[in-house]
Amino acid sequence: MTRGHIAAEDIVASIADALQYISYYHPADFVQALKRAYDLEVEDPARNALLQLLVNSKMSATGHRPLCQDTGVVHVYARLGMDARVESPDRPTPSLQALADRAVALAYGYAANPLRASMIRDPLGRRSNTGDNTPAIVHVGLVEGDTLELTVVAKGGGGDVKARYAMLNPSDSVADWVVSQIPGLGAGWCPPGVLGVGVGGSPEQAMTLAKRSLFEPIDMHRLMEAGPRDAAQALRLDLFERINALGIGAQGLGGKTTVLDVKVAHAPSHAALLPVAILPNCAATRYISFSLDGSGPARLSAPDPEIWAGIPDDMPQRGGIPVNLDTLTREEVARWKAGDTLLLSGKLITGRDAAHKRMADTLARGEPLPVDLRGRALYYVGPVDPVAGEAVGPAGPTTSARMDKFMPALLEQTGLLVTIGKAERGPIAIEAIRKAQGAYLIAVGGAAYLVAKAVRSARVLAYEDLGMEAMYEFTVENMPVVVAIDASGRRIHRAIPIAVAP
Predict the structure, then answer these.
(1) Which residue of 1, 163, 367, 484 has the smallest Cβ count within 10 Å?
(2) Domain coverage including residue 87
(3) CA distance 410 to 421
């Protein structure tokens, strides 16, 4: 095809291929940054979490299966040259939104590597899943030239839910405000990752600047060596040092690295305004950029395997307390201490947001639950569908704090003993766990394919209509977790102000 005449089918094929590609390939610079953080880390819990993230990255690249069970909301950033033309046999020519949606449906339904559909319609009503992860979020800029430049992103909910915005006074310190926000983000965004900061413009521009800045190469190590050349680079360095000094660390477990890089993007603004937005990218960093010029679809080459050199194929066998979930007792749980590593085997029930809402409504009506939770462990997860040879697809933990409000009733009325998820919990859940003499355990967020390797079988128990949010029964073998809150209420997330966690 003539240069600048870009076939609509090439746009669809390129976006679909990109979504499959980023579902299992980390950007090379992200893997290298994780390696640097691992080499620097001296705290054993954080070091172990970093190793799990690296092993998961290698496993996903080799197995072509998702890095994380949250396979993301699709963002497509398009820069269409004013001299380019999209050509299609369809009339009228489909919009970029329509073409992106076709690509998303194609990529997320790919039989060899199905991706989890997370998008819901009617957010104020029934909140029913769209089933194919459409629609995409499409941003279009019209620029000079005759090409179509695309950045395709799969953005997980754990990072976006931590977005923060403020309208500061022009004399206020941007750095001080940003640093003040970080502890309140908690660990639900699966640190370490990259923090995007948007400054200036209008309120909506500031947030867009923060998000778009995340899709630039990680280069903090080079900036530290060369030193800052302008105010934005100086802010990056200042924030990087101050945020990592907070001691939140990988997965909120303490240690040296909370952020791998800080990106700052800025735009002109009204003299009386200083809009500032922050938004983190999680350990499942997924994006790729390419250009179409009319010569055909994008050609995406696999990363150099050397970026995973030195990373083991699986987690080394290390000590942990063996736990039989099928014979679990309150007395056994009482012996666990915050910080203990456990290896879980046996039957594990799953359930997350929508299932918890249904269970709460059922209990409020005085009716029995469809699943007996007495003496059981409940894992907060929405897994990816399995492919041949798998019991379940990638099945990492979701953020536990969203289930906090359900904890008192569940623990008091059902006899539930243990919950498993990621990140810190708020005071309501902590008190309910202490009162029930139960425990809260965490798995590593962002290591979903690795976690799924411990699942030997899976079957739906209830709420099948909820799709990935249905309640399952997993049979697990030596699933590694850490005691985050023990029966006495002691906890491991100490650098995070639990009382104000969202």
Answers:
(1) 367
(2) 1-155+285-294+303-312
(3) 16
